[in-house]
């Protein structure tokens, strides 16, 4: 299997970290986002929204979404389980993946794409131009602060985001927090001890370097 | 199992329609959103973001997200499958659920919550107040038009959203389109014949009335 990848982007890091946890080997092909290689016709045919990662199976079939790639990996290599085992565990992973995505990751995207000069006219991941909305960058900062609080409260009562075990929800949350720090220079505030301890614990896994 | 529900909201309709396809019986408890019953302390303890639906299991455990409820239903009653059977089918359902959510449903939410007077200071689903951003309502309209195009192109080559079979992705897409028409008065433009035919086909299912 081949992964179209860009080392600095958060979404392909999701696919790499999940694959590393599973012991799944991937051929890597780098698409240089900084050089706008995602807008070439060849790549557009693979990924209509011009985003990485894309997983290409050996028969040429492509899956162009990081969480859909996770689902594929979980099904073809169930061990170790990263998306829950019982029906309730699976539902809790789904719930927390959605909360991380909608309350955390999308808030960082709002801050970055509506605030950074290099995303001028690319405020939405699309082949079409979208103007930035500065007020949305500000809203994103407030939403991100609430997301840190939500995670902190959750991690005071739970060892990991979706429950007692490490799951894909931890990967999504860690990469969202690392992305916020690197791309928009917003880190969780001091004092959220349970969040800090969880982040150190998850960051220490070998897969976090993938 | 009990479903905290509001008949006019799109997210609880997702849970009802999915349950109807599976033949899962639910006790219904209505939370009157129009009367702001979702902000009572009793309901906040169940649903921290003050949203319906919430599924309450017989042991009192709650699942407060419509897609997490789908995952639970799919696991406890696998037949008929609504989230794919093979690894690739499951990945394609995931991919299309994400596209419908991020490109379609969230665009309608942006239009509604940033444009309608009744959502003044409630532009984000949260217990905290968020001011409306009128430019985001306008962006939502453009994104929604692109989403209709995306669905139309997909349905020219595929009988259903995620592939040849009816799945949860069709439920998500149908309810998103119905929501756009009812809540922000935006319907797919004339001429997208494959989209229109698919919508009529899916709307004719008994579950669409649930």
Brief summary:
Two copies of one chain form a homodimer. The first copy, chain A, is of the alpha+beta class and 210 residues long.
Q: Give the CATH architecture of the largest domain in chain A.
A: Up-down Bundle
Strand order of the largest sheet of chain A: 2-1-3-4
The CATH topology assignment of the largest domain in chain A is: Glutathione S-transferase Yfyf (Class Pi), Chain A, domain 2
Protein chain pair with the most extensive contact, residues per chain: A-B, 40 and 40 residues
Would you tell me the overall average pLDDT of chain A?
95
| Number of domain modules of chain A | 2
Percent in strands of chain A: 5-15%
Give the quaternary arrangement of the chains: homodimer
Structural class of chain A: alpha+beta
Q: Could you name the ranges of chain A where pLDDT drops below 50 across 5 or more consecutive residues?
A: none
What is the helix/strand order of chain A? Answer: EHEHEEHHHHH
Estimate percent helicity of chain A: 40-55%
Report the principal-axis shape of chain A. globular
Number-wise, the strands of chain A total 4
Short descriptors:
Glutaredoxin, homodimer, 210 residues, 52% helix, 2 domains, 6% strand, Glutathione S-transferase Yfyf (Class Pi), Chain A, domain 2
């Amino acid at each position: 299997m081949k992964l179209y990848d860009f080392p600095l982007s958060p979404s392909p890091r999701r696919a790499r970290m999940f694959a590393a946890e599973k012991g799944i080997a991937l051929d890597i092909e780098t698409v240089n986002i900084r050089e706008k290689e995602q807008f070439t016709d060849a790549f557009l045919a693979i990924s209509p929204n011009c985003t990485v990662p894309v997983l290409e199976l050996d028969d040429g079939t492509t899956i162009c979404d990081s969480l859909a790639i996770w689902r594929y990996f979980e099904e073809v290599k169930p061990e170790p389980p990263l998306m829950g085992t019982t029906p309730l565990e699976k539902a809790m992973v789904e719930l927390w993946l959605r909360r991380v995505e909608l309350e955390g990751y999308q808030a960082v995207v709002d801050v970055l794409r509506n605030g950074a000069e290099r995303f001028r006219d690319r405020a939405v991941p699309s082949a079409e131009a979208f103007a930035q909305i500065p007020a949305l960058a500000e809203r994103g900062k407030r939403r991100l602060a609430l997301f840190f609080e939500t995670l902190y409260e959750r991690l005071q009562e739970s060892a990991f985001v979706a429950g007692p075990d490490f799951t894909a929800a931890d990967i999504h949350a860690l990469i969202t927090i690392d992305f916020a720090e690197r791309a928009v220079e917003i880190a969780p505030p001091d004092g959220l001890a349970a969040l800090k301890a969880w982040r150190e614990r998850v960051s220490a896994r070998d897969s976090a370097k993938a």
